[in-house]
Amino acid sequence: MNAVTLVIPDRTVACPQCGRRGGAADASAAACLCTAHDEALEGLVSRAVAIDPEGRDHPVRVGLIAAMLAEHLGIAAAERAMLRRAAVLHDIGKMALPEGVLGHSHVLDPAARRVMQRHTVLGASILAHARAPWMQLAATIALNHHERWDGSGYPAGLVGEDIPLAARLVAVADVYDALRSDRPYKEPLAHPAALALLFTGDDRIAPAQFDPQILDALRAREAEIAAIAH
């Protein structure tokens, strides 16, 4: 009498993307959840943009501005296009925050702010296993876009060029566009006022938080950036 087993005989081949076994041996190409994972993330991307608490146009503008700044730094067109797409997901981790954290009409208290700051790690976790290069870049941006040049950022307190360049570009684009945007807890600033805060600072923003070469790029491209509709 043959033994009863729940183990499925191994008739699979390795996925060419991740090396895991999963496709049928007699199939023309190895199938894996890698492709399905990226397709699912594509749907999540659309949903994240549609319900972004900062407004659905904010993440798109951040990507556009980051790509404009990258052009001034001499980054190639193909990489700028990937950056523009990936930057849209910089706040995707906010989808995983507890209910009630988002949408406040006031500045968050310290406890709520600590919870909010977890969106960087959560965003990177959502995208961590994506195979598409632009999503891998998005994971890097999601994790690091609140790091600061002077080391005062989060989640890791990285300093200077230890912060990935893509995240440094998005950091400037994100703060600029947030200043220019209407929020429940503040009025939008005009373009000159937003630039003034980035270049001279106030009690919350300091130029030392940002890569100086990217601030120089913002100065150089400010007329084009000012023309972006809000």
Textual characterization of the structure:
The chain is mostly helical. It has one domain (51-226): Hypothetical protein af1432, CATH 1.10.3210.10. 50% of the residues lie in helices and 3% in strands. It contains 10 helices and 2 strands; from the N terminus they run ββαααααααααα. A two-stranded antiparallel sheet has the order 1-2. Helix 5 runs antiparallel to helix 6. It starts with 11 loop residues before the first strand and ends with a helix.
Could you tell me how far the N terminus lies from the C terminus, measured between alpha carbons in angstroms?
75 Å
CATH fold description: Hypothetical protein af1432
State mean pLDDT (0 to 100 scale): 84
CATH class: Mainly Alpha
Spatially, the strands of the biggest sheet line up as 1-2
The SSE order reads EEHHHHHHHHHH
Number of strands: 2
Q: Which strand-content bin applies to the residues? A: under 5%
Give keywords.
single chain, 230 residues, mainly alpha, two-stranded antiparallel ribbon, Hypothetical protein af1432, 50% helix, 3% strand, 10 helices
What is the topology?
Elements: E1 12-14, E2 21-24, H1 33-50, H2 57-72, H3 77-87, H4 110-117, H5 119-127, H6 133-144, H7 165-180, H8 191-200, H9 212-220, H10 222-226
Antiparallel strand pairs: 1-2
In short, what is this structure?
It contains ten helices and two strands. It is mainly alpha-helical.
